[in-house]
TrEMBL record:
Residues 227-249 are annotated as: Disordered. The keyword Transferase applies. The keyword Ligase does not apply. It holds the Pfam family Acetyltransf_2. This is arylamine N-acetyltransferase. Its EC number is 2.3.1.5. InterPro entries: Arylamine_N-AcTrfase (IPR001447), Arylamine_NAT_domain_sf (IPR053710), Papain-like_cys_pep_sf (IPR038765). Belongs to the arylamine N-acetyltransferase family. It comes from Mauremys mutica.
Length: 249
């Protein structure tokens, strides 16, 4: 695991001292170069939360992943550069079901670039909201506490997200990257979705078109055969929504 190769992978060429300027630069480069994706779940690639495996996937094979992978490896990079960074456990509000996921549903480092956000605290639990317009009510993104977590603490939820019917990663094959200047490009199921300047376009895809598209648009070279999927996401069982860890067997 080499810091220089990691910085080259994300296209970062600035200073590496642990300063706010460096953090902003690293964060932006990582966001625009490492896709948020569920492709491993749908092409026979089991996900194991071991840093050397995440490094091989994201740096050497130039892939992306979900939060435990992308944020977990980015946390390693920040620490290697001297930042006092910690990982926190969050619960994501699912935009399809409108409900919060189970505990350790998300590995939290920092809010993403590209909007205005608000943090609130109640009963020891922080809530992150996105503000779309001045004076409007915020949209809840996720909640988290300040109890420090290590990558291994998310192993059970990593397995859960590869198989649960209430997980977007198990129900939908997707790969997504924000675009410079605003907008986002997303592959999902049998569609390519693009937003730019408030305009959304949707292009249907044939199965044989998907692998070359992933390579061309996202730099994602798959080692297995992708099985596209775009199923409806089921609300989590009542116990999971109330904060109990789900079964993973």
């Amino acid at each position: 695991m080499d810091v220089g190769a990691y910085l080259s992978r994300i296209g970062y060429q600035g200073p590496t001292e642990p300063t706010l300027e460096t953090l902003r630069g690293l964060h932006r480069c990582h966001l625009f170069s490492v896709p948020f994706e569920s492709l491993s779940v749908h092409c026979g690639e089991p996900i194991t939360l071991a840093l050397p495996l995440l490094y091989d996937k994201i740096v050497r094979r130039r892939r992306g992943g979900f939060c435990y992978e992308n944020n977990g490896l980015f946390l390693w990079l920040l620490r290697a550069l001297g930042f006092c960074a910690v990982g926190l456990a969050g619960r994501v509000r699912n935009r399809f079901t409108g409900r919060l996921g189970p505990p350790r549903d998300h590995l939290v480092l920092l809010p993403q670039e590209g909007g205005t956000f608000r943090l609130g605290l109640a009963g020891g639990v922080w809530a992150l909201e996105r503000l779309w317009a001045p004076g409007e009510e915020g949209q809840l993104l996720y909640t988290f506490t300040l109890e420090e977590r290590e990558l291994g603490d998310f192993a059970a939820m990593c397995r859960y997200h590869q198989q649960a019917p209430s997980s977007i990663f198990a129900c939908k094959s997707f790969c997504s990257l924000p675009q410079p200047g605003g907008g986002r490009l997303t592959y999902m199921g049998w569609r390519l979705l693009a937003t730019q300047g408030g305009v959304r376009t949707e292009t249907p895809l044939q199965p044989h078109e998907i692998p070359p598209l992933l390579q061309r648009a996202f730099g994602a070279q798959l080692s297995g055969t992708l099985v596209p999927k775009d199923q409806d996401i089921q609300p989590p069982p009542e116990g999971e929504e109330m904060g109990q860890l789900p079964p993973t067997d």
